[in-house]
Amino acid sequence: MEKKPLQYVKEIGAAELKLTQLNAGRSLVPVPRDLEIMPLGESVLLRDRTDPASVYYNRVKGLVPQDLPDLDRLLEQYAPGAPCFELTPDQMTEETALALSDRGFFPAEQLVYMYIPVQTGEEPAAPFPVERVTDEESAEEFIRWISHSSGGMEISSDMMARSKPFFYRPDFINYMLRIEGAPAAMGSLFLHGEAGYIANDFTFPPYRDRGCQKHLIELRLREAARLGATAVYTDVLFGSASHANMAKAGFRISHLSTFWIKK
């Protein structure tokens, strides 16, 4: 049964918040993140004391007009220049926009959230070998792939040991796709209740435009359905390759969130 638009907005917000918590725990950073999540009225405040400049980990989700009298008190919870306000279309009122603008915030970016109802289907053809991260050894290899995708970021033994257990949790499924034995593409599936969330899609440049992500998306949709998800969500930059891949797979746009930041 098709859900109403605001139901998707609410479910996407809840799943994305849980995924953010997991991402904070698995972050490949020298100092472990100290992510706090605090309610303030209808708003949810995310704050990372170890990285106060991070837009992703210092966000306010759900700012609505009735919370505006507490806006200055809310801003006191953050370092100067923070936080980032993420507003969904139903929260994007003239009153809220003026209040943020008066305090030096401006709309800097938009993110497209997409959804697809899922159902159990036939297993997709396997044009490429795909491995699932299932233990410490495969988690370490997956993290090495992440390092390679990020230009060879340095990962200490402490960072590796701290992050590895997150990559084979039952609610966070990660896949590695190879072509002729070489790392070609990877992707993740996060599960929260009846919601699945596709994230971390990456294809290494030599293997793009060969259908790697098409196969990984189909694989994750089937796995999400098998594990009880009724819908799968994702977020993409408008007009990006990921946006095109998701649209081809049948994903539809739920909404665009606007991110307000200070200069």
Quick structural overview:
It contains 7 helices and 11 strands.
Spell out the blueprint of helices and strands.
Layout: H1 5-26, E1 35-40, E2 43-48, E3 59-61, H2 71-75, E4 84-87, H3 94-102, E5 105-117, E6 130-132, H4 136-149, H5 157-163, E7 172-179, E8 182-192, E9 195-203, H6 212-226, E10 231-236, H7 241-248, E11 252-262
Parallel strand pairs: 3-4, 9-10
Antiparallel strand pairs: 1-2, 2-3, 4-11, 5-10, 5-11, 6-7, 7-8, 8-9
Structure commentary:
The protein has 263 residues and is an alpha+beta fold. The protein has 7 helices and 11 strands. The protein has helices spanning 5-26, 71-75, 94-102, 136-149, 157-163, 212-226, 241-248, and strands at 35-40, 43-48, 59-61, 84-87, 105-117, 130-132, 172-179, 182-192, 195-203, 231-236, 252-262. A hairpin with a 2-residue loop joins β7 and β8.
